[in-house]
Amino acid sequence: MDGLVLSHPEQLDRLRSACPEMVDAAVLAGDPCFDRMLAARRYRDRFRRALGVHRGQRLVVINSTWNPEGFFGSGQHNVLPGLLPRLTAELPADDYRLAAVLHPNIWFGHGPGQVRAWLDRAVRSGLTLIDPVHHWRQALLASDAVIGDFGAVSYYASALGTPVLIAATGAGKLDPEAPLAAFVERAPRLDPYGPLETQLTQLIAEHRPQPGGADYITSAPGRSAPLLRRHFYRLLNLPEPSAPALLEPLPLTPHDPPSRTAPFHVRTRTSGTDIVVARSTAQPYGSYDAHGETHLAVHEETRDPSALELADVITRYGPADDVRLGGAVAWATEVLRLYPGCSAAAYVTGPDGCLVRTQEHGQFQLTACPGSDLDPAAYASALHAWLAAGHCVPAGGITLHVHAAGADHPVDVTADRRHPHSAAAGPQDSAGVESRQE
Question: What is the C-alpha separation between 412 and 430, in angstroms, rounded?
């Protein structure tokens, strides 16, 4: 062998103990993977926007290495398959964004079709599956917390200062003298049967990045490119070029917001023009609020069409002038005719607004105020809850304050005088609303 590249002298010490014959071939050349992440840290906000992470949302990355003891395998316990539906059920969708980084061998060992079939329910509930080769570093840089195992991704996350919950320790799989083993030993553990939001909140609140946390990742941060090139040219017995040795920068990933088509149980509490909204794919145990209201919001393309018959709010996303649907107004009118038990149809036309047509109150345009940053479908649910509480939109419009993701998100609500009547509404005034302001 002409070279065995190591990233830190401690690896050389362990190599000397395990296989002294290889010591002469060892080359200390840092870690190019980690160097690329260090160089791209300044673009964290861009990577978050690429994943559709809203202001105040926490991005939780779930990662697994590839052997049976990894998080995806978890021996005989099958922790991850049961955990994913609970994550989307217990973590409010507007407070948390979920992404999964699975080792390439998981994808190619089982086949992409099988992996996607296993995780389909979670994907429909908002989980994004990250490209395991090209985009996992960007997701790691964007993350607020990682739930992982004894693989390298968890160790990289810790080295970047990100809090990590260990879900699978890989007992007996690691060299007990390796820094990775020490990290796994001292990292906080995930209780897969305990309340998940409580554990994540505590993890983030109590996390304190350890000084020197990246010390054992590489002994030459930012210098792997020149060190590796020097070794390669020495092997080729050629002089190095005079140009600097550089690594390919991490590219900005495609825009990949969550595609949620699973029904949402929406819990709301209304006080004046303030509406607290919490959306999740199941009614969390113990979430009953005697002073609040719960309704069902369903994407029109839900896997279970019977949920549409029960929906209080039906949603869809697309351009306002989609000819296949006849446009936003025609779509909303048709939905209220097809599902007379539905109170409101919400057509999301962009990141800042939506059209909402109701059975009893007319039609409205919702527009997020500057600084507001939520899925517009959450604004539609807030309006539904506010109207259901007995309020009416005045003729001049009103600003509602939607509270989610730890922030106030004001949204302007204006009556659409061109379409005052819904498919099933009775007589109303010309604005489809009362002329008083609550």
Answer: 20
Put the strands of the sheet holding 164-166 in their side by side order. Answer: 128-129, 96-102, 58-64, 145-148, 164-166
Element (H, E) at 294: strand 293-299
The residues facing 164 across adjacent strands are 146
Residue-wise pLDDT tens digits, 11-22: 999 999 999 999
H helix or E strand, kind and range, residue 296: strand 293-299
Point out which residues pair with 407 in neighbouring strands: 404
- pLDDT recorded at residue 1: 72
Alpha carbon distances (Å) from 272 to 98, 168, 365, 367, 402: 32, 47, 20, 19, 11
Provide DSSP, 208-228. -PPTTTTTTT-SSTT-HHHHH
Q: Is the pTM of the predicted complex or chain greater than 0.85?
A: yes
Q: What is the tens place of the pLDDT at every residue in 261-300?
A: 999 999 999 999 999 999 999 876 555 565 689 999 999 9
Q: Is 321 exposed, middle or buried (0-12, 13-18, 19+ CB in 10 A)?
A: exposed
Instruction: Read off the pLDDT of residues 65-108 as tens digits, 9 standing for 90 and up.
Output: 988 888 887 554 567 777 888 898 899 999 999 999 999 999 99
Two tokens at 333? 């009118």
Cβ neighbours for 397, distance < 8 A, ≥ 6 positions apart: 412, 413, 414, 415
The distance of Cα 130 from the centroid of its chain, to the nearest Å, equals 10
